[in-house]
Amino acid sequence: MWDLGRSIAFYEAALGFRVVECHRYPGHSLLYLRGDAGDFEIELIQRDTRPAGMPSQTPGWHLAFGVRDLRAEHIRLKAAGLSPGAIEAYCPNSRYLADYFYLHDPDGYEIEYLEERGRYARPLSE
Q: Which of 20, 33, 70, 119 could bridge to 115 as Cys pair (CB 3.0-4.6 Å)?
């Protein structure tokens, strides 16, 4: 079973998010976390019981975030006691596009931190 407290602590340390709302939905607890920099939220859902037939492993998908200073973010996560993976080069078709690394939340969800450069850069107006 998932541990919401552990997940909240993870997202506070990894992204600087905090709980902005929490409520019950039949059979579930729902929490919404948000950072100070914008409207983007993460919704965490904890079922009261695991549905029959649901695999015990997390589905194979991930979130990706662009960051301006990938190495600084990697250092910050390590200092927060988390375990980011190695920084790697993203080179589809042998063409370098950006560096990235992965971090896993307490429930196994994969979070990709991607360097904001080239096609992954924020528009100049931001």
A: 70
